[in-house]
Amino acid sequence: MSLNIPAEKEFGLAEKEIPTRQERVLTTVRDRSVQVLTWVTLCGVIFVGTGWIMDGAAYVPGLLLELGVSLMLLVPLALLGLMLEKRLRKTEEHIRDATARLDALSAVTRERLIEHRRQRADLYQDAERNPTQALLRELLQDAIAVGAVAREGPRVRIAGTTLRLRLRMPAPDQNTLEAIVEEAGGGARKHLSWPEDESAEGFAERLAEILRTDHLYPGDQAYDPSDLLLRFVELLHTAVEARTGESEHDLGTVLEIPNTQWVVSREGLYCLDRHYHIPVARLTGFTDWPTYMAGQEWADRTRFGEAYHLARSLLK
Predict the structure, then answer these.
(1) CB count, 10 Å around CB of 209?
(2) Does Membrane count among this protein's keywords (predicted)?
C-alpha cells in the first residue's frame, strides 16, 4: 500500500525564504568570528609588509615559501569544508523527509488504532447481547494477545457455589473452547469442551448437568447461565481496557475478579477503585494484610478478605 505523504508545508517544514546578497553580506560582517578573522588577516599583512621593509628583496624567497605552504594547507581544507557542507545539506534534507514520513505513518497508525478499538468495542457489544462461543473465543484470544489475561485463561465464579469456571483457548488448529470447573483454590474438578456449533444455552445446560451429577447444582433460581457468560465478557473487557490504557488503572495479567473492588492477577492484587497494587512477594511474605487493610477507610474489609485469601491460594 502506497502512503500519501503530505507536503512539507503541512508539517511546518517548508524552507525559509532565501536572503538577498546584500543581506548575506551584512550578516557576515556582523558575525564576530568574521571580524576576528579580518583583523587577524590585516595584522598578518602588516607583519609581511614590515618584514619586507626591513629585509628588502632578501625577504621575498622566504615569503613565497611560506605562502606556498599556506596554500598547500588551505586548499585541501577548503575542499574538505565544501564536501562536509554538501553532506550536511543532504543530511538535513533526509531528516526533513524522514520526519514527514514518520508524521504520516503516525497518523496512519492512529487511524488504524482507532479503527481496531472500534471493532473491539463492537465485538464486546455483540457478546453482551449474545455470548456465542465464537465471540468469546475471539475476545479471549485478543485479551491473551495483549497480555490482559493469563494464557491458561481467566475464570469467574459460578453463582450459588464456591466453584469457578475457567475458559481456556484450544490448540491453534481447533475451534473449541476448553472449560474447566475448579475449586476456589484452583484444583480442577471437571473438564468439558465447548464446540463452535453449540449454543450458549446448550453449553450452560451441559454445565448444569455436571453440577447436578456432583451434587453441586445451586438450583434453578441461583444458576443463571447468561449471567455467568456475561460476567466472563465483562472480565475480559475490564482486563483489556486496563492493559491497553483505555481505563485509568493497570490491572496486570488478570486471573479473576472476585468482587467489585479487587482483582487477582499474576502480579498480585490490584484495586479497581484506585491505583493500589500489592505485589506477589509482599502478598505472600506479609501475613497480616487483612488487619492492615482494615485500617484503610477506603478498603472494604469483607471484599479485601475474599480477594486476599483467593490470591494467596492461586499465587502460592
Answers:
(1) 12
(2) yes
Has this prediction a pTM greater than 0.85?
A: no
H or E stretch including 240?
helix 225-243
Give the integer Cα–Cα distance in Å for 255 and 314: 9
The Cα 85–Cα 73 span in angstroms is 19
Residue 290 in 3-state DSSP? helix
Q: Are 255 and 150 in contact (CB under 8 A)?
A: yes
Q: Look-up: residue for cell 512539507?
A: 8
Neighbours of 204 (CB within 10 A): 18
Range in 45-49, 80-84, 120-124, 139-143 with the lowest mean pLDDT: 45-49
CB contact at 8 A, 129 and 196: no
pLDDT at 202: 93
Q: What are phi and psi of 270, to 5 degrees?
A: -125, 145
Report DSSP state, residue 262.
E
d(CA 35, CA 32): 5
Residues 6+ apart with CB under 8 A from 157: 163, 164, 165, 231, 256, 258
Residues in the chain: 316
d(CA 74, CA 49): 21
Nearest-angstrom CA–CA distance, 210 and 189: 10
Rounded to whole angstroms, the Cα distance separating 60 from 71 reads: 16
Strand order in the sheet with 155-157: 188-194, 177-182, 164-168, 155-157, 254-256, 262-265, 268-271, 277-279
